DNA sequence: CAGAATCCCCTCCGATACTG
DNA sequence: CAGTATCGGAGGGGATTCTG
């Protein structure tokens, strides 16, 4: 998370601190129901440079929202998946998704990527 | 909002863009069911400098989440209240509040200000 | 009372190049 | 493949001072 405070002014700030990073919501969203490799995330979020993607993934890992698994093979293989805590944040993402989608639609704005509301699978 | 894009990569980003500002969630939260003056908001959010408070309020106004009313009197009197759009975002704040409160409790962290979950009044 | 204006630091983040 | 290292610009945000 971004803030190093052990005291927040508001629980909402604590939540925003964990998912408010530049690409964090997008990463979490893509990881819902999927275990993905670094390269797969890069393709899904091409606007993020490797540096930024790594940084955001590390912060999500520090906050225990995702689990990073390194396989000691050559070539390297690293997988990312949601933790239980990460899964518990899904309702927030969905609530924000629905509100944002309504807002964008009512304002005639568009979404550039193919992300859709996930069917309630795993 | 922070981004000037008319195209988002995700509705969640659009939502975060509107409420993710430094003090925006806190401002919106305090305005739920209350019409407040600038000075009252300053007392409720003392960690925000006047400059930052003004900036965040202006952005919330541009995004039509709040309504700013100026009374042409001396001394100046300005009131802020939630718009219909601002009120519509309340479920998001509540969802984030609940998740954040659970998270902080389970991690033994504390909230510094006296903000509580609002009773479901106006 | 409700801000506007200035100054300035410092972090975020993109671009580019390199590595085990 | 999955990163790391380095540089540098833009702007977020604090402290302070001033004003109608």
From TrEMBL, chains A, B:
Stretches assigned to the HTH hxlR-type domain: 10-108
InterPro entries: HTH_HxlR, WH-like_DNA-bd_sf, WH_DNA-bd_sf
Single Gene Ontology MF annotation: DNA binding
Taxonomic superkingdom: Bacteria
Keywords associated with the record: DNA-binding, Transcription, Transcription regulation
Pfam families: HxlR
Record protein name field: HxlR family transcriptional regulator
Species in which this protein is naturally found: Lacrimispora celerecrescens
């Amino acid at each position: 998370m971004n803030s190093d405070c052990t005291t927040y002014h508001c629980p909402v700030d604590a939540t925003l601190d964990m998912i408010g990073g530049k690409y964090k919501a997008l990463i979490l969203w893509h990881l819902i129901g999927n275990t993905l490799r670094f390269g797969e995330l890069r393709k899904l979020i091409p606007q993020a440079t490797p540096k930024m993607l790594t940084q955001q993934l590390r912060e999500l890992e520090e906050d225990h929202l995702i689990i990073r698994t390194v396989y000691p093979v050559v070539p390297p293989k690293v997988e990312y998946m949601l933790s239980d805590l990460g899964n518990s944040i899904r309702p927030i993402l969905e609530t924000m998704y629905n509100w944002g989608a309504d807002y964008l639609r009512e304002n005639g704005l568009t979404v550039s990527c193919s992300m859709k509301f996930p069917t309630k699978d795993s």
